[in-house]
Amino acid sequence: MTENTNVKSARILIVEDEAPIRTLISFACAAAGYEVECAEDAQKAQSVVENNPPDLVLLDYMLPGLSGVEWLERLHADPKTEHLPVIMLTARGSESDRVKGLNAGADDYIVKPFMPRELIARIQAVLRRYQHQSKNEQDSLNVEVVCGPLTMNEASFEAKVDGEALSLSAKEFKLLLVFAKNPERVYSREMLLQLVWDNAYVDERTVDVHMLRLRKQLQGTRAENLLQTVRGLGYRAHISE
Ligand code: CA
User: Fold this and answer.
1) Which of 39, 59, 156, 164: CA 20 to 30 A from 98?
2) Which chain residues have CB less than 5 Å from ligand 1, an ion?
3) How far is the CA of 108 from the centre of ligand 1 (A)?
């Protein structure tokens, strides 16, 4: 499935009390390939969101009963719906409505009356942004660095050799990660101090002490010879065949 078909098969909830506008928007969304659901007030919209959450909400500002922006505040206060994408529909000239909508967490707003084409373009843009975000979140949960037999996970701070966990301090982990990310690259002690100790005043021998500890941890594993001394220069990770 391409990204485009994903975006197009999204479910849109239209919350609008004026029937002609609701019909118009509903028609435009369906014509663009979206699945459509309608609600004429916040209460009905709430039950749709609870029973069958949509991918995006088109929310009119002026609704009978709970206003669009009041309902939006409730949505965003609930952890289950705080990330639901919302585009507000606001009346022409009502700058303060737009500001209130955006402050309440709307992703975008569109001013009535609008062209269906413009509405669809806004919907697509917001959906794409969310797809991109959730992909990035997934990527950041799975940040594995592999260097020969060594595997490091930046999110969980785990380092393993052939599946066996190493027991490393935070600094040792950070130091080993520098090498794991750039095998064969030589790092001087000074570079390592900058990268791992953030320029704090630390003696260069600190690096040697930590390298010694890392090598001890790797002893007896297949990564035993991973960390090498490059005479006169510093250290590198070398993956042997
Ligand atoms: Ca209205």
Assistant:
1) 39
2) 17, 60, 62
3) 17
